[in-house]
Design brief:
alpha/beta; 9 helices; 8 strands; single chain
Length: 235
């Protein structure tokens, strides 16, 4: 990812699709206690931290991301909040033990089985993981739907469930991310693209055009593909 990519993403409120209702649903399915210790793995600029705090009103959120500017943006949003700890770090090597690990749209960097096996020791007894993963929702997906994921081997819900089981976890519930969740990500991005277009150099212009194509591709194939949010627990 080059500097132009991060220039586009620098001011976005979130780094992937999602909405408050997703967090509320996942924490309910996971039976998270009011005092739950939660890890937001690959937190980006902190788009889900507020919802996680509301889901555990007596709890604590430790948010981790490998990209320091995202962590700084989240610090600006939650500065002085004693229930939030922000760290620059590797989500594959979590430090601490948690009642819930929340990972929105980033498990694919590690792979489902690798992530879940690696996080087992970071979970308290009875703890759970909630993660969203690219998914095909059509039995006959178009090439356009597959191309949206840029070569990533996107799978259907059955295959995602198989990988969860192979990692030694059980699925407590699944939820397809809504169009609202996607537009919550893409509409601020469209506004950012419009603001950056004037005077953009060749490198930035290419990034902006790629983002526009991605948005158009998702809207064209939203019925065929998207994210599946799964709540899982070790067995």
């Amino acid at each position: 990812m080059n500097a132009a990519f991060f220039r586009l993403h620098a001011d976005l409120p979130r780094e992937g699709p999602g909405e408050t209702a997703d967090v509320a649903w996942a924490t309910t399915v996971a039976e998270a206690r009011p005092d739950a210790r939660i890890c937001d793995a690959a937190c980006g600029p902190g788009g889900d931290i507020g919802a996680l705090l509301r889901a555990a009103p007596e709890g604590h959120v430790t948010a981790i991301d490998a990209h320091a500017p995202f962590v700084e943006a989240a610090r600006d949003r939650f500065r002085g909040n004693p229930r939030v700890t922000l760290r620059v770090g590797d989500m594959a090597a979590l430090d601490g033990r948690f009642d819930l690990i929340w990972c929105a749209g980033a498990v694919y960097f590690l792979g489902i089985e690798t992530a879940l096996r690696g996080w087992r020791d970071a979970l308290m007894p009875g703890g759970a993981v909630a993660f969203s993963e690219p998914c095909l929702f059509s039995a006959t997906p178009s090439e356009g739907a597959r191309a949206l994921w840029e070569g990533y081997e996107v799978r259907d819900a059955r295959e995602i469930a198989r990988q969860i089981e192979a990692a030694g976890y059980e699925t407590l519930g699944t939820r397809r991310l809504s169009d609202v969740a996607w537009e919550s990500y893409y509409r601020p991005m469209e506004a950012r693209i419009a603001a950056l277009k004037s005077g953009a150099d060749a490198e930035l212009r290419q990034v902006l055009e790629e983002a526009e194509r991605e948005i158009a591709a998702w809207r064209a194939h939203a019925q065929e593909t998207g994210y599946l949010l799964s709540v899982v627990r070790p067995v």
